[in-house]
Description:
- The radius of gyration is 17 Å and the shape is elongated.
- The protein starts with 5 loop residues before the first helix and ends in an 8-residue tail after the last helix.
- It contains six helices and two strands; from the N terminus they run H-H-H-E-E-H-H-H.
- The protein has one domain (about 5-130): Winged helix-like DNA-binding domain superfamily/Winged helix DNA-binding domain (Arc Repressor Mutant, subunit A), CATH 1.10.10.
- It has a two-stranded antiparallel ribbon.
- By secondary structure, the chain is mostly helical.
Amino acid sequence: MLKFSTRGQYALLVMTDLAEQDPEKYVPLKLLSHRRNLSVKYLEQILIQLAKANLVTGLRGLNGGYKLVKPAGEYTVGEILRVMEGDLSCISVTENNTVKSLGNETFWSDFNKKINEYINSVTLEQIVKKNQEGSNFDYCI
């Protein structure tokens, strides 16, 4: 089932936060935690997972923190969510990789394709621009 956990939602939120910052500077974990009202421990778990996937890089010490590995325009929402959520399919798959649904396989397959096309088309840079403009995304798929 296609459902995003709070970890996935917070990962996207933190990645957006990092995309809004100077790309050359590390943002301290405590500052990110404070700005997003998340516990340091919880946020650290999310950032460690993002770092293992090479989406962010961390630096310890006085001027340490986290920053994006590449420009914001090169990250997609789909890429970030898959790191936290795994497969984003809305279709149940059996052990032998066949679709398990109660009929209408073509509809569900097309639906899954559209959802993934959409989340793969939205970049962090686009989210930052929309946030700065104060406008909403058109969620038409």
